[in-house]
Here is the input.
Amino acid sequence: MKLKNYRGVDDCAVEFSIQGVTVVEGDNEVGKTCIPEAVNLIFSALDDSGKQAVKAVRPVHLDADPEVEVEVTSGEYRFTYLKRWHRARGKTMLEVTAPQREQLAGREAHERVEAILNETLDQELWKALIIEQGAELNLPGFGGSSLGHALDQAAGGSEVDDRDDDIWDRICAERLKYWTGTGRESKERKTLADEVGRAQGKAEEIKSQLQTIEENAIEATRLGAEEDGLVRRLNEAQEYEQELSEQWDATEGLRIQVERLASAHTAAQVEHNRAASDHERRREMVEAVKDGREKLASLEREMEQVAPERARVTRNSEEAASALNIARKSLRDAQNKLQLANNDRDYRRNQIEEEQLLERHERVLEAKEGLKIAEAILDSSKVDGELVDQIEQASLEATRAKAALEASAASVEATALSALSMFIDGEEVMMGADAVRRTHITGNWKLEIPDIVQVRVQAGVESQDLAVDFQTAQEEHARLCAQGGVTNLTEARQKADERREAERTRHESTNKIEENLRDLTFEGLTQKLEGLNKRVASYPADRPKDPPLPGDLDEARKIASDAENEVAERQAEVDRREDNNEAATEASRRAEVSAAVHSENVRNARDALEESERKLEEARQEQSDLEFNEALATEQEKVQHAAAALEHANNELQAQDPDTIKTKLENARNVKTRAEADLRNNQDRQRELRGKLEAHGEAGLHADLNDATSNYEHLLREHERTEARADAALLLYRTFEKRRQEAHQRYVAPFKEQIEKLGHIVFGPTFEIELDTELRVARRTLNGITIDVDQVSIGAQEQLGVICRLACAAIVSSDGGGAPVVIDDALGWSDPSRLQSMGAAIAAAGRDCQVIVLTCTPGRYAHVGNATVVRLPS
Amino acid sequence: MVKFIHTADWQLGMTRHFLAGEAQPRFDGARIDAIRTIGALAVDEGCSFVVVCGDVFESNQVSRQVILRALEAMGATPQVSFYLLPGNHDPLDASSVYISPTFTEHKADNVVVLADSNPVEVVSGVELVPAPWFTKRPLIDLVADVCNPLEDADAVRIVVGHGAIDERSPNKSDPALISLSSLEERIDTGQIHYVALGDRHSTTDEGRTGRVWYSGAPEPTDYDEDDPGNVLIVEVDDQHVEVMPRRVGAWQFHHRDWELTGDTDLDTLEEWLDGLDAKDRSIIKVAIVGQVTLDQKARLDRLLEHHANLLAALETWERRSELVVVPDDADLSDLGLSGFAQEAVSDLSDLAGSGEQAVVARDALALLRRLVGAGT
Here is the structure.
């Protein structure tokens, strides 16, 4: 490449190795970065272009036209291409040296180069393999490039060319005509299916309408045919009704006559019934007299037959009554005897009870006395056990206080040397000679021998306090004794013992009273005792002398028991006699009643007979039996005549069968009504149907149906064809996709292998990568740890980017196509050790492809061992 | 001797689902034209009248346009009377087209509906004995029914009927079948002299007398008609009858089965299609069976597509067609694919051989071929 007047470069020529690494070194601003830019510019911009990109490369320090010349190998072509840019003086020169020589200038040259590049250059790959200075760090993808061809060949598969990719695109496009990206039915197919449904529905609807019309027409035809029959039926019904009406009218006279004769027959019947009734009454009266006589005779016979029996029953009754009286008297005697025996027994028992009650009364009196004394003691005693304990405690306290006082108090002992009188604490004390008086001083103490001496002694403070304590204890002791009405503890204990004794006596007396009173009060007991006294005392005088009073209670009891047995026996005898008497009395009563009834019956029968005979006689006086018989016969004859006339007229009427005529007439009228209704309904329905048919008749439904059916069938066929195409497109897509994926997996392997081979140089032997479908590095594994590639450091990402391009170029170049990797001052993020290993990797890749490194820091690529270094002039 | 035109089964208003676009209007127009042709023919041939033996209309529910155009066409030759018999398609029921306001208001004087079975004297000494249909499903032999009351003729009697005759119908239990023997007995006894029938769309001389005819439809209506497109010019009296078919139809229906096994068969099919006359009035249905390659299938598709544009209609008889498309080596190599695409084609070829997915796989291969072709 030669640059002239290009940006800041006046004149510069660089020769790159076709294979291997070329490191172009130069300081900033010397134009090394212009190299990739110039390559793009010479291929894209015409020499008279006014593009900003062209203006930008014009040198600013001199008025000269920028010029670039390149010598290029692309595919089988080798050519030298020169372009100088100027709006008027632009120049383009092309000299092709292989495969055939060509020499072109101007626009022709430009277009020829374009054609050559279009034919031989993978533009995408070319761009992907350039790492521009300052460009964003990103890992290249090669999915759309010709890497696939090379990879497929490297993988040993058959060649995949652009044509296959093109077919694949069309298959995808074809599938998308029928299926959504997610594999669902496309909107167009759904729409078509809906249209088919709607078309079918419409055809069905019209067919249904036509069916209705046809049914209506058939019904109308049927109704039309039926109408004539209905008219005939109505006419016949009307005629028949007329005929029957006339027949009915003809029977009317006969019916009136029958009714009249029926009335006459009824009247005769009434008269006959009346005569028959009178006749019957007379017969009944005659019968009544006859029956009365027979009945009277019969009753009188019965009276005579029952008289002996009645006498016997009366005798029996009298005998039974007598026997009963005797038994009752015997019972009363025995009962009196029993009463006396019981009284005697009670007397003896009362005697014993009187003694017992007297004893109990005395015991109660005794107990009541004891109770009274005990309660008096208890009422007067104020000392109980508790108070005794308190007094005892207070006494102890006073004794202790006294002992303490005496122990601490000063002691004054006065000994009278001669008898004298003196005053101690104002109280005159007489002392004989040698008498000694000792005093414990617990307070102020004063001894005065009048006119001789006055001694005052005052106890110490401690003694005074103890004296107060002693005084307090004494006061408490005195208070408690006063409370109990005693003077000291001994007396209190004595009082307390007395109280306990009184309480025990009260308890025992109370129990004794309760035991002897039992369920009585004391007054009750006293009254009961007094009552018994009186009864026992008066009884021997009050009772009869005979028999004598039993000697004791046992004897009295035995006599009473015997008397009870005797009473029972007599009572049984009385009961038996009463039963006999009652039976005999009842028999006698019944016999009496029967006799009375018979007598009454006889009297009644006689009275009734006399009454019947009187009435019959009176009636016969008024109208004889013979006259009644004749009247009845006359009425019978009249009835027979009326009945015969009625029957004759009835027969005549029945011969006309009026019921049948009436039934038929009513039916004929109903038939006529029905026929009228049927005819009316028929005509109404016909009018309705004709209206409907006229409304639809000219709507052209037949054509509509054909149109709808045709439309449906067209749509249905189109739908079926579309569905078949959709299925075919889907199967085609899936089959291709499956194979494409497999192919992808096949040619990913060598690319991966190549990247990892270079990566081992840089990152070590544990380095592995995973590629995505676009042949982009997705994940990196190092030392067994796998992370997404965007999580590795910026430096490592940059290194991976370089390695990927080198690996791609190495693979593609092995196909003979050649692929230059251009690295414009990359690896700025790499540390020295990593730069060292990257240098080795670049050198290794350079054995298979062309690598061009542009740098202003030559040291960064010093480790690329086999590099050809080109130094741009400053 | 009376001379008249015997025709039937105009079926005006008929539509055919396979006629798309402009073909249906032309088909409709041809049927109206046929009426004018018949009128003109009657004039030319000196016919006294035209009798149309049923199914004048496709349905009682035809559009006003159809009725008006038919009446207009019949009115074009006012000197010729058209006697129209209601048939099974247009029975004289409550929905009949013949009692519609459009028909009754616009009916020309030369148009007569045979609305009952009373004999009609059409010219002196000639009477028509019509057997109109009053329902779509009559339960008796209508023709026999109108003939039964006839006494010996003192005029030329022409029975006008519609329906299938008993000797031709497969459904012998149909009570409406027309008894041919009964008619022939009446012809033999001179009670009637000619029986003009409609319903069968193919021109047919029925029985032994030469006096019982189906005129056939003046324009064909379907593929299964043997000799449609005619009307009959009839000259008849008690001693003589002459029936002369005259072609008036302009359209044709054809159906044909084809077995395709290679390019030679395709050549034959192509020649046959090329050789069809009046393609724009031809309705063709083909049933195709056999086995072809992708290339041949593509050729067949092109061929059918081409003629579908030329013909009034070109149907493929799906029910009777079974064409297996099996790609051969040449097909696959012609695709010019390589790599994974070649492998996928091979997979599809395997699937296309047999099995559930065979048909879809063949379609997929055909689609692939089209896509490949689109790229070249």
